[in-house]
Design goal:
Layout (H helix, E strand, L loop, with lengths): L1 H35 L4 H27 L4 H34 L13 H8 L1 H33 L4 H9 L6 H12 L11 H8 L13 H27 L3 H9 L4 H12 L1 H16 L3 H6 L9 H11 L3 H28 L4
């Protein structure tokens, strides 16, 4: 019985010795070729897709061959890490290392050549523009999240009783297919302003003038311009909220609701006492996910106002300090503050997932 097993291990070892070097040669050669980039853009893209796919499959195959050389008990313990390991390494390389590096840079001067202590953090919490950015970010967090969840839940409840449920949900979800920059360009035409007497190209001002009013500079007056930007965010995120909450509503037992109606409960009471408690977990998930998007919101502000007229948020300030003013110390410090702000939300989200045995 031992002899066939030994023979099989020899065959696996021989196959590993052949496949392993070939995989390494292909991986390194492809990387060097892409680094030198002698091909056209289209050929480079096609080659990167084919080379990347083959290399990943070959690496997994080679690693599986190596693990099969171990006894079956060790194989069962090691094989999960073979498939999860690359993902962990990639996450570590692209997330953990940059995070640590940003933390180090946040204590350095603008050119990262000398230690600056807490000077960058002092700037963040004392500068007038940064205080505006903090205040606007709080507005995005509160109103962006609240209205996105509210309108998503309201639409989901209304769609359940509608004869055009699928069409209605599709129309509400459609903005999710648009990038934030694309949405910013669309709404820029909505908010476009020209002086009184000029031909109004913005939809809102065209309606205002058509009704006999005066055109308004919607994006030029703080703090209301922040709310007009948040409207775009809500327009985009309501579709996501709708899809998740609608699926959760489908899981609420019709028998329980019908029993409540028989007992004389009104529809509002059923909603507050049965429906909402039943989908509480989904509401938390949607809310925390949208909060993360609001904390990192940058695209809409950048494409609409570039942070002017009192519309700065933390993400836009981080971008400007890092890439416009080339102050890597302040930019890294703002990035660390954003990370600290999102960490409790992520922790709470994972905690709720764990309670519902998602993992």
């Amino acid at each position: 019985m031992q002899l066939p097993r030994d023979q099989e291990r020899k065959q696996l070892a021989a196959r590993t010795l052949v496949v392993g070097p070939i995989t390494l040669i292909v991986a390194i050669s492809g990387f060097l070729l892409l680094k030198n980039n002698p091909m056209s853009q289209i050929l480079t893209t096609l080659f990167a897709i084919l080379w990347g796919t083959f290399t990943v499959l070959a690496l997994f195959y080679t690693m599986n061959l190596i693990v099969q050389l171990f006894p079956i008990q060790k194989y069962n313990k090691i094989i999960p890490f073979v498939f999860v390991g690359p993902a962990i390494l990639i996450i570590g390389w692209y997330l953990l290392i940059p995070t640590v590096r940003s933390l180090v840079l946040s204590f350095m001067n603008r050119s990262s050549t000398s230690f600056a202590g807490l000077a960058n953090y002092k700037y963040i919490f004392t500068d007038a523009t940064m205080r505006t950015a903090f205040g606007n970010t709080v507005l995005w967090l509160l109103f962006g999240t609240a209205f996105s969840v509210f309108f998503g839940l309201l639409t989901a409840l209304m769609a359940e009783r509608s004869a055009i449920e699928k069409l209605g949900k599709t129309l509400v979800f459609l903005p999710m297919a648009i990038s934030m920059v694309g949405a910013g360009v669309i709404w820029k035409f909505m908010y476009a302003y020209k002086p009184l007497g000029a031909n109004q190209t913005g939809l809102l001002n065209a309606i205002m003038v058509g009704l006999g009013g005066n055109p308004q500079n919607w994006l030029g007056s703080a703090p209301m311009n922040n709310f007009f930007l948040i409207v775009i965010f809500v327009w985009l995120q309501t579709g996501f909220s709708l899809v998740v909450l609608s699926a959760a509503l489908k899981g609420v037992s019709d028998e329980i609701k019908e029993a409540a109606r028989i007992d004389g409960a009104k529809e509002f009471t059923i909603l507050m006492r049965i429906v909402l408690p039943s989908i509480y977990g989904s509401i938390v998930t949607v809310s925390t996910t949208i909060m993360l998007a609001a904390l990192k919101s940058f695209d809409i502000v950048y494409s609409m106002t570039n942070g002017l007229y009192g519309t700065e948020v933390l993400a836009s300030q981080q971008y400007k300090q890092m890439f416009k003013f080339l102050d890597y110390g302040r930019g890294s410090a703002i990035a660390v503050v954003i990370l600290l702000a999102v960490s409790p939300v992520i922790y709470y989200n994972l905690k709720e997932f764990n309670k519902r045995e998602v993992f």
